[in-house]
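Quarterly update, task 2.4: S-adenosylmethionine-bound model.
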Amino acid sequence: MKTNRIVMKMPTYKEIYDSAKKSLQSAGIEAVNSEILNIFWYCFGIDRSDLLFRGSEIPENSKYIKFCEILQRRCGGKPLQYAVGECNFMDMDLYVGEGVLIPREDTSVLVSASIDAIKDIQNPKIIDLCSGSGCVALALERGIGRPCDIYAVEISDKAFKYLSANHRKYSSKAKLINDDVFSCYKNFEDGYFDLIVSNPPYIKSDDIKNLQSEVLFEPKMALDGGKDGLDFYEKICEFWIPKLKKGGILSFEIGQGQYDDVKKIIESFGLTNIKVFLDINDIYRAIIGEKFI
Ligand SMILES: C[S@@+](CC[C@H](N)C(=O)[O-])C[C@H]1O[C@@H](n2cnc3c(N)ncnc32)[C@H](O)[C@@H]1O
């Protein structure tokens, strides 16, 4: 008996690009070209100029399937980083997905300011509170580049899985703690740390519903800073400043318009020598203070 086999013709890179562009456009995605190039790079290892010269080539089947899965997730509205499963932060490709905040470029301001603030301290003891993917703790460890003792605290089990995976990926020596920053301070003696750093949830509760639809895919517990967005700053100062050594540094990321309020909070807990750092859009993004007594 004669059987007819249907042979599917695999599309070329150029055909894949054109059809992905149409799909993303009809899903209402804005920066279509750069998004497709991102996904191309991730799935095929092909950049813009490769695409021009190798447009008539055909990718491996398994890579094409991966591309289609990512595209489908992105067309469903998931943030690009969740669709891909990775996010670049300060030269690291960190695992991310539902349940963990996508690291933001602006957070590099917090990391750089913190590294500089402790540059003269040998074997610094550091704790990253509200660690999420671990972007801050891991970037500190890599950026400090000398022996240091780093802890990272994250309450969410889902986020903690990503933190652990990133910790493994970068062979980090940081100690991970799956706990609540409002209780685990009791496990450390007073005057222990040289640096306490945190990018805590800082969006006002009422503002969360007005955030971009993509941000709403991210966990509310990573965003919600209480009625005025300041809950974490107040409580972290109350519970954790006693854990700083004399001369130790507290370093916070802050949201737009929060500088005056957070400065007041930090000062009310006795920190001095307050410094503030701008992000690329000239927004005050990180604030640090020093414990003198
Ligand atoms: C704004 S995100 C920052 C994540 C990461 N540090 C970054 O910069 O991308 C805040 C993180 O704090 C965690 N978190 C919220 N409440 C917490 C608590 N009480 N104790 C520990 N972590 C908490 C959230 O799950 C979230 O991962």
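Highlight for this quarter: The mean pLDDT is 95.
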